[in-house]
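Weekly sync, protein design subgroup
Attendees: M.S., D.O., the rotation student, P.L. (late)

Item 1: inverse folding check
M.S. brought a backbone from last month's batch and wanted to see whether the design step gives back something sensible before we order anything. D.O. pointed out we never logged the input encoding, so this time it goes straight into the notes. Structure tokens as presented (430 positions):
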């Protein structure tokens, strides 16, 4: 009877210690929640990064440069004003200034073959290329922010697991110390428990450092500090692949715009194959008699050597290369989307099965082993093994969730899910 009473007393003491540790953790969490700033959502992080993009000024300048080039492309060639003096000085009869003949002429090159329209068309296509490059650069930035947010959330989740491991190790250490003092376990069991607790504390401290560094890395996208916390509830939700109804494929649009530039180059090279005549008109002053005469003239290049044939062939080859790049990029994008969707679906299934089929039995096993340990039926190693299995299951779930969010970030980049932030960014900079 005395042994059973002692076991019950020890069990009640262990439960009391566990309750106190749990209550302390809850109070600490509540205190942090009351003093901590509001949780930063992914939407808020993307907005902060989009509005603080340091490359935005450079992108806007490149667009402005392309627009200025378009305006310049519509300008025709300047006319030429010429002055000629003949018989200004010489010998014999031409030594007198009164025989000087002066000619003032106005000369203009006439563009033919649609050169101005071709230049303007290419410049217009280059403006679209500059705009799409800005969009692609912003989508890359948003993907990096989404990845960094997922990494930070995973680090916070790992910290929760490390804290739970430390609490379990500390609880086991208390139980072992009690049993050692009661001479029910050898002294090395207490030393082993102290070692396990120290290792759990080190792992928790390292997890805290990783979580803090991940927040710092995330805040660098908008130049902020680490004084914020993350909303972890969405991190633990795996709902399958999210694909927007309307796809915004900025990368393919950029390749198509570059193909349009190549097509415009063909028109420009073809127009350069057409020669441009130059007309000239002027007035000639005849010093001998002070008479005036009007003159007209012109020149036209002969297409004897340079017909710009190779220039046209080069532009056509560039157009063909651009079309091939578009087709290759489209195929690669479809393959990557299919792979991401398959991985996301697999990850979603694994996360749900771990949550419903692995973690609950692992939790029951911990409770059962600990209850048997308190009654003297199991050893400390059995308790440690059961708690390790539970922690490993939770860690595996976090690892799968991390990969799920990373894959979703890559899928969002390919489908242009975050394209609305580009519109907001552009509107705020105008």
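Designed sequence read out in the meeting:
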């Amino acid at each position: 009877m005395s042994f059973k009473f002692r076991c019950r007393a020890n069990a009640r003491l262990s439960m009391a210690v566990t309750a106190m540790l749990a209550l302390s953790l809850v109070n600490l969490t509540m205190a942090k929640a009351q003093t901590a700033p509001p949780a930063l959502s992914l939407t808020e992080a993307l907005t902060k990064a989009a509005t603080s993009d340091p490359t935005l000024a450079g992108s806007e300048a490149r667009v402005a440069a392309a627009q200025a080039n378009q305006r310049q492309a519509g300008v025709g060639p300047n006319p030429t004003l010429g002055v000629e003096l003949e018989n200004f000085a010489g010998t014999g009869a031409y030594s007198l200034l009164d025989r000087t003949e002066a000619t003032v002429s106005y000369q203009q090159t006439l563009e033919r073959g649609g050169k101005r329209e071709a230049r303007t068309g290419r410049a217009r296509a280059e403006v679209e290329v500059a705009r799409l490059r800005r969009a692609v650069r912003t989508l890359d930035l948003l993907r990096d922010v989404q990845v960094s947010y997922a990494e930070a959330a995973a680090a916070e989740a790992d910290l929760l697991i490390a804290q739970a491991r430390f609490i379990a190790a500390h609880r086991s250490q208390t139980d072992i110390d009690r049993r050692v003092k009661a001479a029910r376990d050898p002294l090395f069991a207490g030393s082993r428990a102290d070692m396990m607790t120290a290792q759990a504390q080190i792992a928790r401290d390292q997890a805290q450092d990783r979580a803090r560094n991940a927040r710092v890395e995330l805040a660098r996208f908008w130049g902020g500090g680490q004084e914020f916390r993350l909303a972890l509830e969405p991190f633990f939700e795996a709902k399958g692949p999210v694909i927007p109804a309307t796809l915004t494929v900025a990368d393919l649009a950029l390749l198509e715009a570059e193909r349009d530039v190549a097509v415009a180059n063909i028109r420009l090279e073809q127009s350069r194959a057409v020669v441009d005549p130059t007309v000239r008109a002027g007035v000639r002053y005849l010093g001998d008699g002070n008479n005036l005469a009007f003159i007209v003239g012109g020149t036209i290049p002969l297409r004897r050597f340079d017909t710009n044939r190779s220039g046209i062939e080069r532009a056509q080859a560039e157009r063909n290369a651009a079309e091939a790049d578009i087709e290759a990029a489209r195929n690669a994008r479809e393959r990557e989307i299919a792979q991401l969707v398959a991985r996301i679906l697999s990850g979603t299934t694994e996360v749900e099965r771990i949550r419903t089929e692995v973690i609950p039995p692992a939790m029951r096993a911990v409770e059962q082993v600990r209850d048997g340990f308190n009654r003297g039926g199991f050893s400390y190693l059995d308790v440690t093994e059961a708690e390790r299995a539970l922690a490993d299951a939770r860690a595996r779930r976090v690892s799968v969730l991390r990969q799920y969010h990373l894959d979703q970030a890559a899928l969002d980049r390919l489908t242009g899910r975050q394209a609305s932030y580009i519109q907001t960014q552009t509107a705020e900079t105008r």
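Discussion: Confidence is low (pLDDT under 50) at residues 1-26, 28-33. Strands lie at 39-40, 80-86, 101-109, 229-230, 278-286, 291-299.
Action: P.L. to compare against the previous round before Friday.
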